[in-house]
Structure formats: structure tokens, C-alpha cells
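RESIDUES AND SHAPES:
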Amino acid sequence: MKYLYYALFKKQSDDKIEVTFPDLAPHAATYGTTMSDALHMAHDALEGYLLVVEDLHEKLPKASSPESLTHDTSQLIIPIEVDTTLAREREDNVSIKKTLTIPKYLNDLGKQKSINFSATLTDALKHKLNIL
């Protein structure tokens, strides 16, 4: 299932970035050392929380609109989207055999360089699909 909740990002005095989810407080919160790290941690925290809530069959609060969130001017409101169906599939991490066709010269060069074709294809697909 896809969910979207708004997170509040606030830079702290120690330069860490605090991340809170007002609709899910105090259960989902985290921090990061950079904005990129904070975004990653926010996604991870929200995903973990939502998976547990689904497993326990608990009801989730409706996500607030960004306009209705109470915040101060030092906080950024950032939407964080999580797909728990995709997260569960990723957790299962079952590999499947796939037959594909590639140019011979790429196959030859890959073999010479001892390229792991499965890992390379997996990495390329994750990048192409914007999967963390």
C-alpha cells in the first residue's frame, strides 16, 4: 500500500537535522547528519513504522495536509512517500532466474573484467526505478 505523510525537518544546534512526523508523533521520528541522510532516514523510519502498524492491524491516522500542520519558520515540510508492498517484496529478497540478451562485446568485456552480471543488472534496475 502507498502512503504519504509530511515530515518536519529542523536543523539542530549540533548541525544534525531532526525529522518528525506530526501525524504519527511520538512513534515515528529520526535525524540525519546531512539533508540527504535525513531524507533517507525519514523514509526508513516511516517505512518501518508503517510496516509494524500494518502487521498489528492497527488503524493509521489520516495524513494532514501541509497547510494544516503546525510548525515554525525554521522547519521544512517535506512529503515522504512509502510503498509497504514494495518494502515487503524487498524484505523477501527472493532471487529469480532471468534470461536476457546483451551484445556479445559487452558479454566479452564483462567476463574479462570479472563483472557480476546479476549484481550489475540489479543495481541498474534499482537506479532506473529509483529504489533505495
